[in-house]
Amino acid sequence: MIARTVLAAALAMTPVAHARVVTADPVDYTPHVLDGIVNALALVGDTVVVGGSFSEVADASRSRTYPRDNLFAFDLRTGRVKEAFAPGLDGPVHALAAGADGTVYVGGDFPTAKLRRLRLSDGGAVRGFSPRVSGGMVTALARRGAQLYVGGDFVRPRTALARLDAGTGAADPAFDIVAGAPRTPRVKVHAMAVSKDRLVVDGTFTTLDGLPRPQLGVIDTGSAKVADWHTDAYEPECMDVFPSYVRGLDLSPDGRYFAVVTTGGPAGPGKMCDTTARFETYAKGTGIDPTWVNHTGGDSLYSVAVTGKAVYVGGHQRWLDNPFGRDSAGHGAVEREGIGAIHPTTGKALGWNPGRERGIGVKAFLAHRDGLLVGSDTTRLGQEYHARIGMFPLP
């Protein structure tokens, strides 16, 4: 086991570049989420904010238990639970984003106020932040300076996708991109990531502003227009129970490429079901192909983190490098239970293989300057007890 109690105080905001792959041995001081599932993570200074659907957390020694409804925070350096931060949300948290001045944005499926900005000092709402997001849940958040991008299946102030003033919550009238023609009854944005000039989004839509963008699109944030970037990779259908199958995505630290993970079930050749794929952000035109594709062979992936040295993927997969598998290990498959890492250039599985109890799967990654945080629904990570939250440090 690794017992690291001191981490650097000054932490860069994600995304961050790593010079090495993280170790396969989790730190010993992270707290435990005792029930439910972790859906989202954010880092505000030295404070980790954890959101999901749960009711209790415990300290690393399991000697003290704290009631926490769907949201809590702990110190990244020590693992100590922040006692003053206990807002008690009345619904599951699906998305988090770090805010300025010791605050965090919280999105989810709440009876009222689907999007909130809270102070970490006491859990109270920040005055003056009044977003009019309603008619559905918030499932994705990405902040870039004074702009906050929001995704979900809400219908106001825009359908499924909006850009807000990060201070007031007011909708930006210049950002009016319409996500349309969904493969499901409602339009829903599953995931998003933002760089200096691009916003990448995936979801159930097949058009953005009337342009064909099946389940995946790139937006020029400066012009607030859909970029000249189109792929048909996610046009084919997977299993009927997964009419829309894109899930997590993440941009590389330099913004040049991004990775997308999917569910979908076992499928035939040429389909992107249960895969990780790399795409080049600044490619142009129609018919853009993925740079590489890595198949699980029939198991879902939900979350991805790109650090430059690795593309970390999590779900309830059993294998990677498995294009010939059909809910089985095909020729060339390598075992990667619940969590794995892919080489960002070759698209092949790296040797990193800590293992994780599979369950539903990893729903949240957060790469930071000193390692990789992981949120899920199970209690075994790296062959140790780490209930629903854990961290792999850099060597």
TrEMBL record:
Source domain of life: Bacteria
Signal peptide, first to last residue: 1-19
Keyword Signal applies: yes
UniProt keyword annotations, A-Z: Signal
The protein's name: PKD domain containing protein
Biological source species: Nonomuraea soli
Taxonomic lineage of the native organism: Bacteria, Bacillati, Actinomycetota, Actinomycetes, Streptosporangiales
